[in-house]
């Protein structure tokens, strides 16, 4: 399925008129009709706006699939991950053990404070 077919299909599913898309893009309805009849894709400069109007990601429009998005992580966490990735498997195990030990100490101190 070409991109213009996906656009038409999505517009129909979402009850968005072709005129609404044309108005958003600043093009004449004849331009959109030409894309449809020739089965030609809209120029790249229009894709982001079309996606905005249709309420879909560019990736979804182009591939039909959505990628899994991960929340942003802080620079500090990214640095830890980058350093961890450089370690040998043995050292990675040691780091995990070390962190677990610190967490156990932290939890023990927290329990003692609550009990006091």
Give the key terms.
116 residues, mainly alpha, 434 Repressor (Amino-terminal Domain), 2 domains, 7 helices
- Unreliable segments of 5+ consecutive residues: none
Oligomer: single chain
Which architecture of the largest domain does the CATH hierarchy give at level 2? Orthogonal Bundle
Share in β-strands: under 5%
Outline the structure in words.
By secondary structure, the chain is mainly alpha-helical. The protein has two domains: 3-63, 434 Repressor (Amino-terminal Domain) (Orthogonal Bundle), CATH 1.10.260.40; 75-115. The chain contains seven helices and no strands. The chain has helices at residues 3-13, 18-25, 29-38, 44-54, 58-63, 75-85, 89-115. Helix 2 packs across helix 4 (44-54). The longest helix is centred in the last third of the chain and has 27 residues, at 89-115.
């Amino acid at each position: 399925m070409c991109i213009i077919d996906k656009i038409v299909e999505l517009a129909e599913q979402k009850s968005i008129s072709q005129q609404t898309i044309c108005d958003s893009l600043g093009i004449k309805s004849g331009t959109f009709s030409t894309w449809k009849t020739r089965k030609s894709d809209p120029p790249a400069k229009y894709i982001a706006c079309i996606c905005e109007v249709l309420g879909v990601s560019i990736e979804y429009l182009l591939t039909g699939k959505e990628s899994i998005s991960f929340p942003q992580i802080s620079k500090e966490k990214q640095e830890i991950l980058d350093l961890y990735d450089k370690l040998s498997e043995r050292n990675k195990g040691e780091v995990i053990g070390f962190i677990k030990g610190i967490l156990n100490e932290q939890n023990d101190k927290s329990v003692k404070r609550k009990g006091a």
